Amino acid sequence: MSFRPDQIKVVLPFSGARPTVVTPKNAACLLPVLIVLHQEASTPGRVGNVLRVLGHPLDIRRPRFGDPLPETLDQHAGAVIFGGPMSANDPDDYVRREIDWIEVPLREQRPYLGICLGAQLLAKQLGAQVAPHPQGRTQIGYYPIRPTVAGRALCPNWPDQVYHWHREGFELPAGAELLAEGDDFPVQALRSGHAFGLQFHPDVTYAMMHRWTTRGCERLDAPGARPRHLHFADRAVHDVAERAWLKRFIEGWLARMPRAIVSEAAE
């Protein structure tokens, strides 16, 4: 049964085969952030870089390869589920387990961030549909997004275009708030309580872009996909704004951790 937190009407602006914990030197007093990845070679990319700079250790887990997910987030500052080539509609056990597990941060009102697949898993947990575009279109490359009034109130200075790599999108779940919208895939960012979902990929580094466009080159022929050279040409134009926005967004997202947990971690 999906867990749906009460709708919050007031928008508060931002101020291997085993789990791996990556700890920066200045993280002695901060709780780790749970990082969920879906491929053996996947990394938390730029999101992980920002979290490390902010002083949070990374508790990296890959449920697809047998890593367990915690029964509670009492020992974590928040959780991030990243993307992957699989679908939120796949019948694999680990996909179903991840969807069910998202009830934990929702119930405990802990910061949750879903990126691409992670956002689609959140939408499924909240009872919304995840499906391909009706005309089979994809978003692979840079595409424009439009923050809503609520999105601008929450975090200013959204980038005009952001990096995407997906063929499925999701509906806005009942009670959730639309933060940014797009054209072929209308829901680009949402919030439900302390949980956020981003259809796009602010986590992608330059090295990740090279890897994705090389190993996934066959997807560049899909309807709507941008040719490979435009991925890098557009990155030169749009990446500075996307990188600056991500840092502000992550800082505000972590600020939603309950104050009692922050105080306890600092003791």
Shape category: globular
Give the proportion of residues in helices. 25-40%
What is the percentage of strand-forming residues? 15-25%
What value does the average pLDDT take? 89
Q: How would you spell out the order of helices and strands?
A: EEHEEHHEHEEEHEEEEEHHH
Description:
Helix content is 31%, strand content 20%. The chain is globular. It is built from 8 helices and 13 strands. α2 packs across α4 (117-125). The strands form 3 sheets. It has a 9-stranded mixed beta sheet with strand order 1-3-2-4-5-13-12-11-8. The protein has a two-stranded antiparallel sheet with strand order 6-10. A two-stranded antiparallel sheet has the order 7-9. β11 and β12 (187-192) form a beta hairpin. By secondary structure, the chain is α/β, with parallel strands linked by helices. The model is unreliable at 1-12 and 14-18 (pLDDT under 50).
In short:
With 267 residues, the chain is an alpha/beta fold. Helix content is 31%, strand content 20%. It has a nine-stranded mixed beta sheet.
What are the key terms here?
single chain; alpha/beta; 20% strand
